C-alpha cells in the first residue's frame, strides 16, 4: 500500500470509551491496514496532537505494512476536555486501554513522545500483556534530573505558554524546542497557534490540573524493572525540556532496553531527524 492521499482529515475518527472513571470521547487517526499496530502518543505541549507530533513518521510506517493509530490524549486536540488532579501518565494509559479495547487490539507497539513516553511506560506497567515493543522519545518517566534544575527551562516556557497563549510565547518556547530553529516556518507557528486557540478549554484545564497536582508525571524509576518489553529509547543530546539523564535512568531500569542519542537534536527527535528515526524504528520493530 502507498500512503499517497493519507491526511489528517482522511484518517480522523472518534470513539466513546468507558474505562474506570473515564467516560469520554477520544479523537484518533487510523492509518494503514497491517497485522501489527503501532500506537503513537503525543507530548504535552499546548496545541499538540498525534498528527502535529508524528506527521513525518506515519507514512513510512504505513508503507512498511503497519496499522498506525495516533491517539489524542484526553485534554488535547479533538478529544474531550478533562482536569487531571492525579497521575496524567496513568490517566492517559487508561484512555489507551479503552481505545485498544474499542478497536479490538490485543497487543500494540507503542511509540511515545515526551508525555507520550510517560504514558507508554504507565501502560506497560499496568497492562503488560497488551504491549509489543516500546519506543520512548524524550520521555518515559518523571522525576528529578541529576544535572539540570527542574522544572527545566523548556517546561517553564511550556507552562507560561499555557497561561498566556500568544505567538510571542509560542516562538519563545519553540526557539529552544528543536536544535535547528531554521527548520521552523511561519506556517508551522501559525498552525500550532490556531490549534491552541481553538481549544481554550484544554489550555485552562492544563493550568487547573497543574495547580491541583504539580507532579502530573510520576517517577516510575523504582518500577522500571517490571517492564520486560523490548524498548528503544531515543533522546536528543540538546534536549532542554526533558534532560538526557532521564533516558539513562530508563536504560538502567528496563532490562531489554537500548538507547540512541542524536547529536544536534532537541526535544523532537522523531521530527528533527525523521528519516534516520523512521529507519531505526522500522528496524527495531522488525527484528
Ligand atoms: O513535562 C514533561 O515531562 C513532559 C513534557 C512534554 O510532554 C512536552 C512535550 C511537547 C510537545 O511534544 C509538543 O509541544 O509538541
UniProtKB/TrEMBL annotation:
KW Hydrolase (keyword) present: yes
Marked site (Catalytic role in ketonization of the dienol substrate (substrate destabilization)) residue numbers: 192
Keywords, ordered alphabetically: Aromatic hydrocarbons catabolism, Hydrolase
The EC number(s) this enzyme carries: 3.7.1.14
Residues at the active site: 267
Domain AB hydrolase-1: 37-274
Pathway linked to the protein: Aromatic compound metabolism; 3-phenylpropanoate degradation
Catalytic activity: (2Z,4E)-2-hydroxy-6-oxonona-2,4-dienedioate + H2O = (2Z)-2-hydroxypenta-2,4-dienoate + succinate + H(+); (2Z,4E,7E)-2-hydroxy-6-oxonona-2,4,7-trienedioate + H2O = (2Z)-2-hydroxypenta-2,4-dienoate + fumarate + H(+)
Domain of life (superkingdom): Bacteria
GO molecular function: hydrolase activity
Site (Transition state stabilizer): 114
Enzyme class, UniProt record, top EC level: hydrolase
One Pfam family per UniProt: Abhydrolase_1
Subunit-structure text: Homodimer.
Function: Catalyzes the cleavage of the C5-C6 bond of 2-hydroxy-6-oxononadienedioate and 2-hydroxy-6-oxononatrienedioate, a dienol ring fission product of the bacterial meta-cleavage pathway for degradation of phenylpropionic acid.
UniProt record similarity statement: Belongs to the AB hydrolase superfamily. MhpC family.
Protein name as annotated: 2-hydroxy-6-oxononadienedioate/2-hydroxy-6-oxononatrienedioate hydrolase
Amino acid at each position: 500500500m502507498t500512503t499517497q492521499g493519507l491526511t489528517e482529515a482522511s484518517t480522523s475518527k472518534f470513539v466513546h470509551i468507558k474505562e474506570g472513571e473515564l467516560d469520554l470521547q477520544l479523537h484518533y487517526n487510523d492509518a494503514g491496514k497491517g497485522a501489527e499496530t503501532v500506537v503513537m502518543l503525543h507530548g504535552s505541549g499546548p496545541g499538540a496532537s498525534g498528527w502535529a507530533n508524528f506527521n513525518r513518521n506515519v507514512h513510512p510506517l504505513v508503507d512498511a505494512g503497519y496499522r498506525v493509530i495516533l491517539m489524542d490524549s484526553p485534554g488535547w486536540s479533538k478529544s474531550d476536555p478533562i482536569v487531571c488532579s492525579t497521575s496524567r501518565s496513568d490517566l492517559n494509559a487508561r484512555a489507551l486501554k479503552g481505545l485498544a479495547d474499542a478497536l479490538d487490539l490485543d497487543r500494540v507497539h507503542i511509540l511515545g513522545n515526551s508525555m507520550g513516553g510517560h504514558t507508554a511506560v504507565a501502560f506497560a506497567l499496568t497492562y503488560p500483556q497488551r504491549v509489543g515493543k516500546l519506543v520512548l522519545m524524550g520521555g518515559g518517566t518523571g522525576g528529578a534530573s541529576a544535572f539540570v534544575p527542574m522544572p527545566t527551562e523548556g517546561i517553564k516556557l511550556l507552562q507560561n505558554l499555557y497561561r498566556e497563549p500568544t505567538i510571542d510565547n509560542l516562538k519563545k518556547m519553540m526557539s529552544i524546542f528543536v536544535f535547528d530553529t531554521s527548520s521552523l516556518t511561519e506556517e508551522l507557528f501559525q498552525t500550532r497557534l490556531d490549534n491552541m486557540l481553538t481549544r481554550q478549554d484544554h489550555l485552562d484545564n492544563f493550568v487547573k490540573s497543574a495547580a491541583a497536582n504539580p507532579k502530573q508525571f510520576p517517577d516510575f524509576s523504582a518500577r522500571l524493572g517490571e517492564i520486560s518489553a523490548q524498548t528503544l529509547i531515543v533522546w536528543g543530546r540538546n534536549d532542554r525540556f526533558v534532560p538526557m539523564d532521564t533516558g539513562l535512568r530508563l536504560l538502567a531500569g528496563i532490562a531489554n532496553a537500548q538507547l540512541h542519542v542524536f547529536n544536534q537534536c532537541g526535544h523532537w527527535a522523531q521530527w528533527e531527524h525523521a528519516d534516520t528515526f523512521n529507519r531505526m524504528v522500522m528496524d527495531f520493530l522488525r527484528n
